[in-house]
Design a protein that fits this description.
- The complex is a heterodimer of chains A (96) and B (279).
- Chain A is of the alpha+beta class.
- In chain A, 51% of the residues lie in helices and 17% in strands.
- Chain A contains three helices and two strands, in the order αααββ.
- The longest helix of chain A is centred in the N-terminal third of the chain and has 20 residues.
- Chain A is elongated and about 85 Å long.
- Chain B is α/β, with parallel strands linked by helices and 279 residues long.
- Classes of the chains: A alpha+beta (96), B alpha/beta (279).
């Protein structure tokens, strides 16, 4: 009898100690990555090309990596806003 | 057989491999043919032919899709009549590696020819987003997006939805968009209750397209492919019944969803009655 009660007690403890629910984690991760990828998807094809050209032009004057430049197109109320973010390195080493 | 309707092209797609595209194509094609619609099912997986095995006609393949495109055989020579239903025909993929054989024009030609006599044309897409997959969806009127409740499959499905709304004829011509249907396969309500599997409502919320059906994880699916008899013909099985329901819903019938609830009460789980994994 003691064994049986112990067994049930163990099961009850085990029931409430089940590992964290991973499905919630999966859902959150998916929501974030899919929202991001949907945003990328709606960008026109020329953005990547334009980014490359901009890197080339800026590189003539300041040495930057291609990752230092972020380009985004946002659509709001029928007009598009082109947002350009360039991170310049420390001034001391800007001259090529 | 019914009177001929305007042919409808259905693509079965998923992006990710191994989620059940071919199983779904085979079962759907049979389901439609059993409703009296003249149906053709095409294997677009050039180089990796498998629909023939799932449908149990692998030994009757003489000519294939690429032979037809290269005019080495005509369509009637290549189409294999299904052994269960006289209204169903299979067009197998070729086993050659020449994936470039498919072009937009040549695929269109074959589909146009099929549309003259068939009601439904089911296109079994290969995995991935290469030419075969793109051509399988290009001319479609409807898409069945096969998804497993698993992160990589859901992400890939979303990617395919993006392609369906941009890289298809309907999209390019600005016509009414392809009608999209979610088919959630390999679903295990028990694991959802446990919190280890994305739920139907999770996937539905993320992909946001109408739900066609849920196919439960089932041993019947492997048994079906082992024997070359599509699972929809196993009406004893949960998966077979779920496919039948899904075909009904596709045809506009109001069929309630089954196999989405965990049948085992929490008290049972608490006291550890060991249940078998879903059969």
């Amino acid at each position: 009898m003691k064994n049986i009660t112990e067994g049930i007690a163990k099961r009850i403890v085990h029931y409430f100690q089940r590992p964290a629910k991973t499905a919630e984690c999966a859902k959150e991760r998916l929501q974030i990555i899919i929202a991001h990828e949907r945003g990328e998807r709606n960008k026109p094809d020329y953005l990547a090309l334009m980014q490359k050209d901009l890197v080339d032009v800026i590189s003539k004057y300041v040495s930057i990596n291609k990752d230092d430049i972020k380009i985004d197109l946002e659509r709001k109320d029928g007009c598009s806003i082109l947002e350009l973010n360039v991170t310049l390195p420390h001034l001391a080493d800007t001259h090529i | 057989m019914r009177e001929k309707i305007v042919a409808k092209i259905i693509v079965v797609t998923s992006g990710k491999g191994g989620v059940g595209k071919t199983t779904t194509s085979a079962s759907f094609a049979i389901g439609l043919a059993n409703r009296g619609y003249k149906t053709a099912v095409i294997d677009f997986d050039i180089g990796l032919r498998n629909l023939d095995l799932i449908m149990g006609c692998e030994r009757r393949v003489v000519y294939d899709f690429v032979n037809v495109i290269r005019k080495e055989a005509n369509l009637n020579q290549a189409l294999i009549r299904d052994k269960h239903n006289r209204d169903l025909f299979i067009l197998p993929a070729s086993q050659t590696r020449d994936k470039d054989a498919l072009t937009k024009e040549s695929v269109e030609e074959v589909l146009t020819e099929l549309a003259k006599t068939f009601d439904y044309i089911v296109c079994d897409s290969p995995a991935g987003i290469e030419r075969g997959a793109q051509l399988a969806m290009y001319f479609a009127d409807s898409a069945i997006v096969v998804t497993n409740p698993e992160v990589s499959s859901v992400r890939d499905s979303d990617r395919m939805l993006g392609l369906l709304t941009s890289k298809t004829r309907r999209a390019e011509e600005g016509r009414e968009p392809i009608s999209e249907h979610l088919l959630l396969t390999r679903y295990s309500p028990k694991r959802v209750t446990r919190g280890d599997m994305l739920s139907l409502s999770d996937v539905n919320e993320i992909l946001a397209i109408p739900l066609l059906g849920v196919i439960p994880e089932s041993q019947a699916v492997l048994r079906a492919s082992n024997s070359g008899v599509p699972v929809i013909l196993d009406q004893e099985s949960d998966a077979g019944q779920a496919y039948m329901d899904a075909v009904g819903r596709f045809l506009g019938e109001d069929v309630p969803h089954r196999f989405i609830e965990d049948k085992n009460h929490w008290i049972k789980r608490l006291f550890g009655f060991k249940e078998k994994e879903a059969v």
